[in-house]
Structures are given as C-alpha cells and as structure tokens.
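Worked example 2:
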Amino acid sequence: WNPLDRPWSGLVEIEAGLDHRPLFGVSTPEVRVLGPTGKAQPFQSIAVGHNFMPGLVWRWRVLTPVSLPAR
C-alpha cells in the first residue's frame, strides 16, 4: 500500500521464514519472489539479519524492485 499521492518505485528488503522449522540438510533453498500476477520477479539474496542458528536455513532475505501506484 502506498500512502503517497504519487507512484513510488524502489528496492524493498524482505526477510521471511521459509518454514515453521529449520530446513535440515538444505544449504541453498530454491527461493522465488512472485509479483501480483504470480510471475517470478528479479531479486538478489542478501545475508539474513539474525544470528540465531546461523548454520541452519530457516529464514531468507532478498532485495527486489517494487512499483506502487499512487493511493
């Protein structure tokens, strides 16, 4: 949602849990960012912002371009 009266475009950082438990035995999960139409969007993976269980994959963080229409 864009509260501005003009469109906004830029990079958005998203960090999300991949599952309700760690993904044991997975070092690089297949991650996709989907747009509003369900198509895959470009993204760049970046380091997660936590230090809890760093050897286990349970969260992933990405940067992706987003365009929001004016309110």
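The radius of gyration is 15 Å. The longest strand covers residues 8-17.
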